[in-house]
Every structure is written in C-alpha cells, then in structure tokens.
Specification:
Layout lengths: L14 E6 L3 H17 L7 E6 L5 H11 L4 E9 L5 H19 L4 E8 L2 H6 L8 H19 L1
Parallel strand pairs: 1-2, 1-3, 3-4
Helix pairs in contact: 1-5, 2-3
Length: about 150
C-alpha cells in the first residue's frame, strides 16, 4: 500500500490570509489563530500576507485574484457569517462558500476554508478561540498540510 500525506512544515513557504472585516470581533480572532499556527510551524512573519475585504460576498473574487498572483503557496480564507432574521444569511453563505470552492478546484495551490456560518454571535465566538478551539488555527493547519501534499504530488 502506498500512502501520501502532507507534513506540517512551514519553513520557506508563503501564505495569503484573506480576511473579512464584517464581524471583525470574530474574524480578528480567527486571524490571530491562523497567524499563531503558521508562526509556530516555521512560517516567517514576513511570509504571511493579509488581504482584507468588506465581507463574505467579496471572498471568492478576491481569492481568485490573489491566487492568480502566483506568489503564495496557499490561501486561507477567513470570515464569519451570522444568521439574522432574513434569508440574506443563506444567500451570502451559499455563494461565498460555492465561490471559494470553485476557486479551490481551479487553483494550483491549496485554498483552505475558515469561514464560520453560525446561528449566533456566541457560537461564532466559541469557534474563534473560546470553547470550540480556533477555526482560524484549524484552517491554517490544513493549509500547511496541503502545501506539503501538493508538493509531493508534483
């Protein structure tokens, strides 16, 4: 049996972190988690580029442009969409995630998903570093692993 996997090695790799400003109370914590993960795994601070967009709707278009720059080993998309009293949540969440999926399928680098979709602010905060860990850290860890796997795959 042949088994292929990526190791958590960040030395010499460059990462793009794409971050939404909307719900910044949550997204700034996701960013802190992602940066902490990357730094702890050997990524140099100067090799982390943070791109900020207004909200989740803008993530796919910005991700596509950032990937096309060809200067990163992976892109980490971070955001937070909290359900409100209208169907707006479903439309924005579906299109943002569908769009990021499309970018990920076409990109030659890994695109890691760290976009929260929650019913409440409390649920979002729990996933941004309190009770449920930090999903920004998790997305960065996935990006690290996938960069090494992509390298092994050629």
């Amino acid at each position: 049996m042949n088994e292929f996997y990526g190791e958590l090695k960040g030395e010499g790799k460059r990462f793009a972190v794409l971050l939404t400003r909307f719900n910044s109370l949550v997204t700034e914590e996701l960013l802190a988690g992602a940066k902490d993960c990357l730094l702890r795994h050997g990524v140099a601070d100067d090799d982390i580029d943070v791109y900020r967009v207004p909200g989740a709707w803008e993530l796919p278009a910005a991700a596509s442009r950032i990937v096309s720059l060809g200067k990163h080993d992976a892109l980490i998309a971070l955001g937070c969409i909290i359900r409100g009293g209208t169907p707006h949540f479903e439309f924005v969440a579906a299109e943002a995630l569908r769009g990021l999926g499309a970018v990920a399928r076409e990109a030659k680098i890994p695109v890691s998903l760290g976009v929260l979709t929650t019913d409440t602010v409390d649920q979002a905060l729990e996933r941004a570093g309190t009770k449920a860990g930090n999903k920004g850290w998790d997305a960065a860890l996935s990006a690290l692993e996938m960069t090494d796997l992509y390298r092994r795959l050629g």
